[in-house]
Design a protein that fits this description.
alpha/beta; two-stranded antiparallel sheet
């Protein structure tokens, strides 16, 4: 059975605090995630000082500050990321971080990153995609805000510059925080799977409230789930309000692992746990009245009742018309 790779997206919900980021790793590890992902960026190289914030960011942070000012407060240092990687290792979860430009790609290469999670906003960034592809490592690609043609173009850049399709997982995503249920369009994940049959897998980067969409994505075949989490959804910050709190993160992981078990294999066959119920739940051919030796079995003197430990009712036509070899009382199982 293939295990779903669950990424707990810490993102910038540490609010620029290393101690908070470490606590988030602890919480995520206790919840059972496979990886904790952060965001590695430098405000000076990510955004112009005049760039406005997204609407959801303005709604959850100081509406008067620029995107630059907001991000500047959320930066972590190179030393911080070294500590966070070591912290992840100590808790037995993988450290991931999304780079947002060429310089932070190099920073993460120097930290020894072996798997790359690329954000939706960089889907049209040719130099960025080319630089990651040249590393020849595993890539998880979010596709929020994209038309299918843009996804094809980004994958073509990755493949032509060194990323093997067998090392590429593509995530359906909607970048509204939180995503309205009517905008999830989860079936688009299936379109990605059919459009790119040679990629490693598909998944879902979930910005909805709650856990049900992530669980549904797993039922539809997602091999990777990414979900934002926070220590407290009421904190100030751009992503807290659309994130899971610790108990919810634990419930999501628990539910996904149960769905993995429930999906099982494709064969239609009785499970070991239900085999013992066959005799009780199925039926057998039994006498409906007294039958003497030599008397012919008819629809008038036979019926079908539980338990299913005798002759199967599927043999009804073969039994009707035969002569009884023994005598029977009502409810006796027929030997035929």
């Amino acid at each position: 059975m293939n295990k779903v790779y669950i990424i707990g997206e810490a993102g910038v919900n540490h609010n620029g605090s290393l101690d908070c980021a470490k606590e988030m790793i602890c919480v995520a590890a206790e919840a059972g995630v496979d990886a904790v992902k952060f965001q590695t960026f430098c405000a000076e190289t990510l955004v112009t000082k005049a760039a406005r914030k997204a609407e959801y960011q303005s709604n959850t942070t100081n509406a008067d500050e620029s995107q630059y000012d907001m991000l500047k407060k959320l930066e972590l240092s190179v030393a911080d990321f070294r500590e966070l990687k070591a912290c992840c290792q100590s808790y037995g979860v993988e450290f991931l971080s999304t780079p947002f430009d060429l310089s932070t790609i190099k920073l993460l290469v120097d930290l020894g990153i072996q798997q790359w999670k690329l954000p939706s906003g960089e889907m049209t960034n040719l130099p960025y995609l080319r630089e990651v592809a040249r590393l020849g490592q595993e890539v998880i690609l979010s596709t929020g805000m994209c038309e299918l043609a843009e996804v094809k173009a980004a994958i073509a850049v990755l493949e032509s510059n060194g990323t093997k399709l067998s090392d590429l997982t593509v995530l359906h995503c909607n970048t509204e925080y939180p995503t309205p249920m009517c905008d999830v369009n989860l079936r688009a994940m299936l379109t990605l799977r059919s459009t790119f049959p040679d990629i490693r897998g598909v998944g879902y980067s979930d910005h909805t409230m709650g856990i049900e969409v992530s669980v549904a994505a797993v039922a539809l075949g997602a091999s990777v789930i990414e979900k934002h989490f926070t220590l407290d959804r009421n904190q100030a910050g751009p992503d807290h309000s659309a994130s899971l709190e610790p108990a919810e993160l634990r419930q999501m992981v628990y539910s996904i692992r149960n769905i993995e078990l429930a999906l099982g294999r494709s064969e239609k066959e009785p499970s070991p746990s239900e085999l013992k119920n066959r005799g009780m739940a199925r039926k057998s051919i039994v006498a409906s009245k007294s039958i003497t030796v030599g008397e012919m079995f008819t629809e008038d003197n036979l019926t079908v009742k539980r338990p299913g430990t005798g002759v199967s009712p599927m043999c009804w036509d073969q039994v009707i018309g035969k002569k009884a070899q023994f005598s029977y009382e009502p409810d006796d199982l027929i030997d035929a």
